[in-house]
Design a protein that fits this description.
alpha+beta
């Protein structure tokens, strides 16, 4: 075998290895989420695909503004406005919001919800119980305990893409990014301890 043949063979082997290594590493890596954003949960598929309410659109805005662009969070946005928390949430840095969806609020009898929405102090206490003053990554949810802005703690448990907050509220779309927060959409409204 000539030196030229050895050089060609070596170059071919190196090229094959360069292709094989990333392919084999890709097979060993965790599967990427279909939408490429790192979000998870069944309700993520209902998030608009484009525009300000999409995952990409929400990532550009602070959390209260981003939520106002998501049709699944309209009741939460109404509550945040009534409590006067829009600027507080939009100006906070590196927070996590466990955001009840419209379906979560629909579980509350209408008369009870109307009373809470009319009582600014109680509403503020409930809403700030849904906010943690630090960014919580999905990996921290398996057995987490986090202090809320309300002052009490909430807990998270689960694995994979199945997590519960305080043992009852399921995360239905998790790891949604906004300009200043990580958001986990949940299927029940959390009540702070008395």
């Amino acid at each position: 075998m000539t030196t030229a043949h050895r050089t060609i063979r070596t170059a071919a082997a190196a090229a094959a290895a360069a292709v094989a290594i990333p392919v084999s590493l890709g097979l060993l890596a965790p599967a990427a989420h279909a939408d490429g954003s790192g979000t998870f949960g069944p309700a993520c598929s209902s998030v608009p695909k484009e525009g300000s309410g999409s995952l990409a659109g929400m990532a550009k805005d602070p959390v209260a503004t981003a939520a106002s662009n998501n049709p699944a969070l309209s009741t939460l946005v109404t509550a945040v406005k009534k409590a006067g928390l829009v600027d507080t949430l939009n100006n906070a840095k590196d927070i996590t919001v466990f955001a009840p969806t419209n379906d979560a609020f629909n579980k509350i009898p209408k008369a009870d919800l109307a009373k809470v929405l009319a009582n600014k102090d109680q509403l503020t206490k409930i809403l700030t119980y849904h906010v943690v003053g630090e960014k919580v990554a999905p990996g921290e949810l398996s057995n987490g305990s986090f202090k809320t802005l309300e002052g009490s703690k909430l807990t998270t448990k689960g694995s994979g893409e199945s997590y519960k907050v305080n043992g009852t509220a399921k995360i239905v779309c998790g790891n949604v990014k906004t300009a200043n927060a990580t958001v986990y959409l949940i299927d029940s409204v959390l009540m702070p301890p008395k």
